[in-house]
Amino acid sequence: PGCWEKMELKKFNRLLFVAVGAAGFLVLPLVLQGTSWGFLVRIFGVIGLYGILALGVNLVLGNVGLLDLGFMAFYAIGAYTTAVLSLRGWNFWVCLPTSALMAMGVRALLGAPVLRLRGDYLAIVTLGFGEMTRLTLNNWDSLTNGPKGLSLLSASTPPLLIFGFQILTNTHFFYLIYAFLGVAWVVCRRLDRSRIGRAWIAIREDELAAHSMGINVPKLKNVAFTISAGFAGVAGSLFARWENFVTPESFTFWESAMLVAMVVLGGMGSLPGVLIGVVLIVGLPELLRADIFVRLGVGSLVNARYLIFGALLM
Question: How far apart are CA 303 and CA 250, in angstroms?
Answer without folding.
Answer: 24
